[in-house]
Design goal:
There is one protein chain. The protein has helices at residues 41-44, 47-56, 80-102, 115-126, 153-157, 160-165, 172-175, 193-206, 226-241; strands at 3-10, 15-22, 27-32, 60-65, 108-113, 131-137, 182-186, 213-217. Helix 2 (47-56) runs parallel beside helix 9 (226-241). The protein is α/β, with parallel strands linked by helices. An eight-stranded mixed sheet has the order 1-2-4-3-5-6-7-8, sandwiched between helices.
Length: 249
């Protein structure tokens, strides 16, 4: 497997940012790390290992990006406006700098676990013109978990449960969600209560769009950790590779 490390200056963030790529061909997958983690998280936790057969077969190539959650979502004592504006700078770095650099002109699938699952959902639902699908594992989709009691338009725009609820089912942006692999999975075991509730709420909100979205809730033994995320990633990306993504019954 070809692996490349990159470190480049970001105009939006005004600092150097790192990312790593795995594989040479196949559908591009932009991977977001979990809360406060870095671009090497998937490699360190065996996610690249379980994806390796599909990467080496030329089904997928992964781009694992960096996050700045410690400056934004996790900075709970900080000013709301400053935190969300800094997040938006990172959002703009991803869509205007990183994606054009790594996409090869294609739409990327977005993926992530936990907070990475939120980021994947937020990027996909905000910019479906850039992204071709999503695999979100144990994601959280409401901004008020990190910004309780907020009254801020920019936070609203980064809260999928909020802005999707306010979107018309006939909107032009909603049309771009169609005919793409949309996977949202969560367990029902330890530390999955909050993310499970958020994922269930998302299912109810997107139902109005009539999408072929796969919401899958694994058992009560399935906890919020990489032991299960490795299995889920292998399973769902295997389904995407086989063109076997379906709407859950």
């Amino acid at each position: 497997m070809k692996i490349e490390y990159h470190k480049k200056w970001s105009v939006n963030l005004e600092r150097e940012v790192e990312y790593k790529t795995y594989g040479e061909s196949g559908r591009g997958v932009l991977v977001f790390p979990s809360q406060d983690q870095r671009f090497y998280e998937w490699e360190d936790n065996g996610m690249i290992d379980v994806m390796a057969p599909m990467i080496e077969a030329g089904e997928f190539r992964l781009i694992c990006c960096d996050s700045i959650d410690v400056e934004t979502w996790s900075l709970t004592g900080g000013d709301y406006d400053a935190r969300i504006r800094r997040h938006e700078q990172w959002f703009n770095y991803i869509v205007s700098e990183l994606v054009p650099e790594v996409s090869r002109g294609e739409q990327l699938i977005v993926a992530g676990c936990s907070m990475g699952g939120y980021h994947a959902g937020n990027f996909f639902f905000r910019r479906p013109d850039l992204f071709d699908g999503i695999v979100s594992l144990s994601g959280l989709f409401h901004a008020d978990y990190f910004f309780p009691g907020y009254d801020n338009e920019l936070i609203y725009r980064n809260s999928p449960l909020d802005f999707l609820a306010g979107m018309s089912e006939n909107s032009l942006i909603a049309e771009k969600y169609r005919n793409k692999p949309l996977v949202f999975c969560c367990g029902q075991g330890n530390y999955e209560r909050v993310t499970g509730n958020s994922t269930a709420r998302l299912r109810n909100v997107v139902e109005k769009f009539g999408l072929d979205t796969w919401f899958d809730f694994w058992g009560k033994d399935v906890s919020h950790d990489f032991y299960w995320w490795r299995r889920q990633a292998a399973y769902f990306f295997g389904k995407i590779a086989d063109n076997d993504i379906r709407k859950a019954a």
